[in-house]
């Protein structure tokens, strides 16, 4: 809370799912936090206090997805709900799925953002699939870290530093496995919430407006 106040963000808005904060304000929060904590693995450790429900409707749709592939597609499609400066792309290559996470270059140390994004994504996948899930490999654009051993301990797979992209690779048979937590109806309800939210966010975006209208009319045929 003190970090939010210092960045002129009302702490009461933290639990408001409709609130949005500027990237500059959030960067100020994290920059101050990183300076105070002074831990090169802090970005990685943020995953330990994360849960999909923190993403509101996107998190609940994620938890109700039929497969990890479906969940990841939702994340790719609706990631703007989380952050305007990040994108997630998916590409099949043989028997693997390559997940590429890209973000705008900003003043905060890039490795904190890359570490936290990848670690949180794996935490979300394990919340659906199970703690035994391990990627094929993980890669980071930033150079190796003083605490590189913690990366291997968390991801439980080969980790490459100094790569061209921030990527996570998962086996296709894992991401296509039917999940016991699947609930298509619940996922669709939260999809509608997200589409309506984006339509409100992008009032001039006719595509989002049409999507919202279609979903509203689906129950009546």
Key attributes of the depicted protein:
48% helix, 10 helices, 12% strand, 5-stranded mixed sheet
- Distance between the terminal alpha carbons, to the nearest Å? 47 Å
What share of the residues does DSSP label as strand, in percent? 5-15%
Summarize model confidence as the mean pLDDT: 89
* Overall geometry: globular
Side-by-side strand order of the widest sheet: 1-2-5-3-4
Given as residue ranges, the uncertain stretches (5+ residues, pLDDT < 50) are none
Number of strands: 5
Main beta sheet: 5 strands, mixed
Helical proportion, percent range: 40-55%
The radius of gyration over CA amounts to 18 Å
What structural class do the secondary elements suggest? alpha+beta
Q: List the helices and strands in order.
A: HHHHHEEHEHEEHHH
Helical segment count = 10
Could you characterize what this model shows?
The chain has 221 residues and is an alpha+beta fold. Helix content is 48%, strand content 12%. It is built from ten helices and five strands, in the order αααααββαβαββααα. A five-stranded mixed beta sheet has the order 1-2-5-3-4. Helix 4 runs antiparallel to helix 5 (68-78) and helix 4 runs antiparallel to helix 9 (184-201). The radius of gyration is 18 Å and the shape is globular. The chain starts with a helix and ends with a helix.
SSE map:
Elements: H1 2-6, H2 23-37, H3 42-45, H4 57-64, H5 68-78, E1 86-93, E2 96-103, H6 110-129, E3 137-139, H7 148-155, E4 159-160, E5 166-171, H8 172-175, H9 184-201, H10 206-217
Parallel strand pairs: 3-4
Antiparallel strand pairs: 1-2, 2-5, 3-5
Helix pairs in contact: 4-5, 4-9, 9-10
């Amino acid at each position: 809370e003190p970090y939010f106040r210092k960045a002129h963000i009302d702490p009461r808005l933290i639990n408001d799912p409709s609130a949005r904060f500027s990237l500059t304000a959030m960067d100020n929060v994290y920059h101050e936090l990183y300076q105070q904590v002074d831990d090169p693995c802090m970005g990685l450790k943020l995953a330990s206090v994360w849960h999909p429900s923190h993403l509101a409707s996107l998190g609940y749709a994620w938890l109700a997805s039929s497969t990890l592939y479906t969940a990841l597609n939702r994340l790719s499609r609706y990631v703007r709900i989380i952050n305007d400066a990040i994108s997630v792309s998916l590409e099949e290559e043989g028997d693997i799925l390559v997940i590429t996470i890209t973000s705008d270059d900003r003043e905060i140390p890039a490795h904190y953002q890359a570490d936290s994004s990848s670690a949180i994504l794996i935490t979300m996948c394990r919340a659906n699939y199970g703690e035994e899930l391990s990627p094929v490999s993980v890669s980071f654009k930033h150079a190796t870290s003083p605490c590189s051993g913690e990366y291997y301990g968390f991801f439980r797979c080969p980790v490459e530093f100094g790569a061209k992209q921030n990527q996570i690779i998962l086996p296709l048979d894992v991401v296509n496995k039917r999940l016991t937590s699947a609930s298509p109806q619940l996922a669709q309800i939260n999809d509608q919430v997200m589409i309506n939210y984006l339509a409100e966010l992008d009032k001039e975006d006719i595509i989002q407006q049409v999507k919202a209208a279609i979903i509203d009319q689906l129950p009546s045929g």
